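Incident log, support desk, overnight shift.

02:14 A customer reports that sequence design results differ from what the structure should imply. Their input is reproduced verbatim below. On-call engineer (initials T.W.) acknowledged and began investigating.
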């Protein structure tokens, strides 16, 4: 069992975030000792690790809540999990395309800026 301070250090999560996860039921009510201090079990730490990995993949807290529910019966939930993951993958691919276009535009503008004797093509582009 770890107290909140150790969990924040170990998982690089703020105490406020841990309390918020408990408040919105992303994390079940955490055991408290007789002094009222939260004590996190290995199961809690596993759940928090799952949440952090899902966030890194771009899932929202609502989606993570659904994934956590699916985690209880993964075989039955497989189609829903696959659908959710496929939608997230589609979103990421669209975002990557957009980032690629932005990269190309910035590359062009920075090249034009170096060759432009007057004005600033970057600022002019942002104005338009």
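02:41 Re-run completed on a clean worker. Output:
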């Amino acid at each position: 069992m770890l107290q909140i301070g150790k969990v924040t250090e170990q998982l690089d999560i703020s105490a406020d975030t841990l309390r918020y996860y408990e408040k919105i039921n992303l994390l079940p009510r955490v055991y408290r000792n007789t002094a009222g201090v939260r004590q996190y079990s290995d199961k809690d730490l596993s759940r928090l690790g799952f949440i952090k990995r899902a966030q890194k993949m771009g899932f929202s807290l609502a989606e993570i809540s659904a994934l956590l529910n699916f985690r209880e019966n993964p075989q039955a939930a497989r189609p829903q999990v696959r659908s959710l993951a496929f939608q997230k993958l589609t979103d990421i691919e669209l975002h990557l395309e957009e980032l690629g276009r932005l990269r190309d535009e910035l590359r062009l503008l920075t090249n034009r800026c170096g060759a432009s004797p007057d004005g600033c093509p970057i600022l002019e582009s942002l104005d338009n």
